[in-house]
Amino acid sequence: MEMLVVLLIVGMVSGLLFDGAAQLMGIQARLDGQLIRLRGEALRADWLRQVVQGLQPDYSDGKQVFKGSPRGFSGLSTNPLSAGYGALQPFTVTLTHDAARNTMLLGYGGGSSASVLSSWPGEQGRLRYLDDRGGAHEDWPPALGLWPQLPRAITLEGERDGAPWLIAAAPFGPTWPIPRPRDAVGTTR
Question: What pLDDT, on the 0 to 100 scale, is given for residue 39?
Fold first, then answer.
């Protein structure tokens, strides 16, 4: 009889321990999912910052002069998201709305081969360009005035779950191209 009571108590205790372990594993799985999602968002924001931090101006007669709009920007970067990291590479960043899924997509690269850096539900999202005084512009370079080729900073603004969010990045390089000898003396023939 005592043996039966001991077996019953051991069975109940082990059942409670296994149930507690299952609950703990479920909590850990949910937390891991959230951490992966949060790390992924931080990594995607870092990819955008990386490209912007490597921005370099092109010569005024170059093919890759920086241009920006609320839906994208293109130019030259020493931090491209490709194998040519560290080398000056042309790039394009686009912001599009996927109407079929009602999702905003931040893409890197041009056309149908663009890689999605980030996405969020809804249709809220735009890029803005800050000048030296902190003024925000929809397009870069702005229509009037003498502006450096690169903005002081670029912001990506969006909305998720009714709350606005912002990612800001600033170029680390020069805002004007390094002068060439022919720019200083003129062309010789």
Answer: 64
Residue 24 lies in a domain: yes
Domain count, the chain: 1
Q: Which residue has the higher pLDDT, 124 or 110?
A: 124
Please enumerate in sequence order all residues whose Cβ is within 8 A of that of 147, keeping only pairs 6 or more positions apart, or say none: 131, 140, 141
Asked whether residue 3 is assigned to any structural domain, the reply reads yes
DSSP string across 121-148: ESS-EEEEEE-TT--EESSBS-SSS---
Q: What is the mean pLDDT of residues 141-164?
A: 89
Sign of dihedral through CA atoms 36, 37, 38, 40? positive
Record the tokens describing residue 167, joined without a space.
Answer: 């990612």
| Close Cβ partners of 172 (under 8 Å, ≥ 6 residues apart) | 53, 54, 55
Q: What tens digit of pLDDT does each residue of 17-32 get?
A: 888 888 878 877 777 6
Percent of the chain at pLDDT above 90?
40
One-letter amino acid for residue 2 of the chain: E
Domain around 143: 1-178
